[in-house]
Every structure is written in structure tokens, then in C-alpha cells.
Amino acid sequence: SVKKMLPTMSKDSEIKDGENKNLIKIVERPTFILKTREGENRAVSPSQRNGHKKDADMSSAAPSKIQESIRMLSICPEMSTCIKFMDENMQLCENSIDFLYDQQDFLVVGCLGAQGVGKSTIMSLLTSHYSSNIFQVQDLSHYENSTNCTTGIDFFITKNRVIYLDTQPILSGFVIDSAASFDQKKGASDFMNSDSNLELQSLQFAAFLFSVCHVIIFVQDWFIDPNLVRFLQTAEMLKPSSTTVIDQDYVEYYPHVIFLHNKAELQDFMPATIDEMKDFYNKVFSSSRLQTHSGIDMNHCSTESGLNLFFIPSRNRQEDMIFCENEKSLIDKLRTKIYGVPRNSITPSVLTEKNWYHYVSKVIEVIKKSHLSSEYGRLMP
């Protein structure tokens, strides 16, 4: 066999090669200086160009939107008195939309109560820092003629975008008298259903307020009429749904309800009496979905879970004013707590003032055509 001859290297040659390696001169790499292109017309990718433009548009749109809102509110016509929002037949008046704008920061406060309890007086006191007697209050002529001071719903909106709705009395005898006289002129002989029609009409007004208001002030002048409690529970049942779309994440809307006792006497401010009232309301509305525990009460430092119970002292008992807060401080406290209440969305989508007005018209139509209301009216005794 022939063996391959491997080349052999001497140690001297290895040393020489090693020396040559050490003698290799390291040459530095040349340095290239890159100069950016001058001018504004350098090439930019479309995505970058659109991105910069979008950011610039967003940054410029934010202040312009705020300025537009400020300008819009600055030209808002100021109201000096209330106007008619809806008549006694639940026909919506169109002139109120002229005072509404496309902005979302607003609060709707409604008022419910029987005849002569002081609903319009409370609403006028809440708006007294804008003008006096914005809502007409009942005087001697109304008692003599047995007429209501408020028919339908009166409307007033403040500079702070708080909408006040003063409603005609619920379960008022004047409605029966006017309806009976109207039927008598027509020659009708059956007045058996007047009471039922009166209650159903009042329930429709209450269900309407439950659907369109953030806060409802339920005014009473004594403690307590169980028929009014049953009335509130029935109105809650007849309240139409705020959406026609089945949404698993949406929680049905219910307003904040304040139990306001007007013309309160000295014993009504006693802790034992207040505890008795709280215990009654807590038991009666334990299963209600109305927001009755929002902290709108007489305490200076309220908790969110406090019962919405408030007292306004009688104006005729001046000696009682010595032992409790005066009317002005109580109204200021009530107004402050109403303004600070959480404003839950009335519908699944956030409404502006004008959208709220259009939603109101839809609610009226739904209530008028409600099958549940008609069935309840048919089954009433």
C-alpha cells in the first residue's frame, strides 16, 4: 500500500509565520459622514405621512371642540321664567327645543306630588338664585276656583344646564271635575270610570318622569299616605323599558327618588321621628329598583348609602325656625346634593340635550301605546 506523504514543516518556518502574523498592520476603516437632505420635500412613507397628519388633526381638534362648546353655551338664550313643556294630554310642545343644545353635560330634575303640597314652591326655591317665582305657585284664586296651578309639565333650564320639570298634581280632583263637565257637555251619562282614568293618567305622567329624569323629588306635606306609596310602586311597574334592543351588559335605568316632606313641623326633625320614617321607607321600597339611597339627606356629610329623605319646615310656624336650619340653607344644601348626584345614562347610548328631547317624544308615544298600561287600566276596579 502506498502511504500518502504529508508535508512536513520545520519549526523555523512556523516561527516565521507567527512573526509575520504579528507584523500585520491594522488598517482603520474609512468613516462615512451621512448628511441629511435639505428641504421639506424629502421622501416619507405614506403611513408616516398620514400618522403625523392624524396626530395634528387630533391635537388641533381638541381645543377647537372645547372652544365650540364654550361658544355654543355663550349664545344660549337665557330663560327668565318657565315655559310649557307638555300639556295635560301629554302632547309635547316644540318651543322648548330652542333652549337645548348638542352637549352631554346636563341634569334633569322632575317633581311629583299631590295637589297643594308645594311642588312649584320647591322648584321655585331651587331656581331662586336665577330669578324669583320662576314656577307659578298656587294662590287663593286657585283654591276658590278649584283649579290646578300647574297643568301638564312646565320647563326651565339653568345656565348650568339643569333642566327642571314641574308636573301637574297627581290624583287631582280638578281633572275629574273638568273631565266630568266636558262629558256632560257632550251628553255622556256614564261617569263611573272617572276615578280610574284619573289614576291611569297620573300613573302615565309618573312613568314618564321615571323614564326621562335623573332625579325625581316626591313632595308630601304629611307622613304618610299609603295610597301614594302604592302609586309610586305601580308607576315603577308601568315604566317602559329604556331600550328595545336586548343587551346583556345594559342595566335598566331607574332615577334617583327624593322623599321630600314639605311644611314639616318641629317634631318631624326629631331623631326618633326621622328614624321611624327611614325604617318605613326602607321596608316599603326594599325590593324597588328606584334609587332611594343616594345620600340626599339632611346630614352635612352624607354617605352614598343614605336614604334620600329631606325636610323643609313650614313657613307658617316661625317659632319652629329657631330650632332647625332656615329655609335658605336647607334649599342650598338640597340643591348642592342634587347637583352632585351620580348621573347615570338614561339610555344605552349617551344623550345630548337635543337627543334627550327626541327621546322624550319617543317615550310619550310608548307610554300612550303601552299594552301594560291599557291592561292595568282595564283591570282597575
UniProtKB/TrEMBL annotation:
The keyword Cell inner membrane does not apply. InterPro entries: P-loop_NTPase, SMG8-like, SMG9. GO terms for biological process: nuclear-transcribed mRNA catabolic process, nonsense-mediated decay. Keywords: Nonsense-mediated mRNA decay. The keyword Cytoplasm does not apply. Residues 37-62 are annotated as: Disordered. Pfam families: Smg8_Smg9. PANTHER family: NONSENSE-MEDIATED MRNA DECAY FACTOR SMG9. Belongs to the SMG9 family. This is Protein SMG9. It comes from Mycetomoellerius zeteki.
